[in-house]
Amino acid sequence: MDLNSAIKISASGMRTQGTRLRVISENVANADSLGSVKGLDPYRRKTIVFESYVNRDEDAEMVRVAKVGRDDSEFQLAYEPFHPLADEDGYVRRPNVNSLIEMMDMREAQRSYEANLSSIEMARSMLQRTVDLLRG
After folding, report:
1. What is the pTM of this model?
2. Of 119, 106, 112, 102, which is closest to residue 15 (Cα–Cα)?
3. CA-CA 20 to 30 A from 15: which of 5, 85, 109, 127?
4. pLDDT at residue 1 above 70?
């Protein structure tokens, strides 16, 4: 594998982690979004699935987003009998977003993005050194 392929592999990782960060950001932004009217579901957490594939042009295994899905886990129930969206038992359904989990996922995506960036910088540095050696 040449250094250009290494850069392209890392770039595919950066793209997928960037998409992951956008999905996580949407989840965090909507962690308190309730249904607009009584009976409607609140915001449902989004998930992301990656897949690896072989890029025949580069003869390398890359990564991409397979799909952005929905987390079908149960909504959180909060007892708020005077809330306008409360059901007949006084419970309000809240989004199935756990901010702590989202922050941990965000940190992991950030670290992965930084690792891919570091790989690109290293490959670029090696290419520059090769050019410098050929000149000298």
Report:
1. 0.84
2. 112
3. 127
4. no
